[in-house]
Write a structure and sequence with these properties.
Gyrase A, domain 2, 227 residues, four-stranded antiparallel β-sheet, 2 domains
Length: 227
């Protein structure tokens, strides 16, 4: 017969050695664990630093925005004050202009007659002048159509009229004169008076010898109503 000997003590000893060997961490593995922990700590520190810096930047931006908002509100209030002051100045200027118009009046007819006479071309003859409000109507005769058109251009240059409102309304060639054998052109010109205040035309009124208007303007200047 055969006898089976089993040594349980020996087997337990081997198992203990195997378990013990499996639970031991080598020196190299310990270094890797330590390095990994250090890297993690550095990463956390870096993230914390970045968060702190961003928090400070956000706080600074909020402070700047609040300051700019306050400055904007102050600027808006100042602009409103300036707009109100400008409106008051414009109202005073408008009232002054009305006073000048009332006291001085429009460009006097005598000045208009003198201006037209001085600007009348050689081959132009004026037969009538009529003023209605701010519009002046001239009637006359020209040697030909070209002379009538040239006269319109000359009147456009006058400081008493608004250039865009000086127009040749009609030009009709009449019958030929048996003596001169010339058929004159009957024309009508309408001219709008300037929109400038009469006081702004002081030098022109002096040139045209409109003494009454000049005297009234001088009086307003002496009183300090106008410059």
């Amino acid at each position: 017969m055969y006898t089976l000997d089993i040594n349980f003590l020996e087997d337990d000893s081997r198992k203990t050695q195997e378990v013990g060997a499996a639970g031991v961490i080598s020196a190299d593995e310990g270094k890797f664990v330590a390095i990994g922990g250090g890297v993690a700590a550095l990463a956390l520190a870096a993230v914390g630093g970045m968060f702190f810096a961003l928090s400070n930047a956000v706080a600074t931006q909020k402070q700047q925005i609040a300051q700019l908002t306050q400055e904007e509100q102050q600027l808006d209030a100042r602009l409103k004050e300036l707009a109100s002051a400008e409106q008051s100045v414009q109202q005073i200027e408008a009232e002054t202009q009305e006073l000048v118009k009332l006291f001085v009046g429009q460009v006097p007819l005598s000045a208009i007659l003198t201006e037209v006479r001085e600007r009348t071309l050689k081959d132009i003859r004026i037969t009538g002048i009529q003023q209605s409000g701010t519009e002046v109507t001239l009637r006359g005769q020209a040697r030909n159509y070209d002379d009538a058109n040239r006269f319109v251009l000359v009147l456009k240059d006058s400081p008493l009229f608004t250039s865009e409102q000086v127009k040749l309304q009609s030009a009709i060639q009449g019958r030929e004169d048996p003596d001169t054998r010339i058929a004159l052109v009957d024309f009508e010109i309408r001219a709008g008076l300037t929109t400038k205040n009469t006081a702004e035309l002081l030098s022109d009124l002096e040139r045209l010898r409109a003494e009454g208007a000049v005297a009234r303007i001088r009086l307003l200047q002496e009183e300090g109503v106008i410059e």
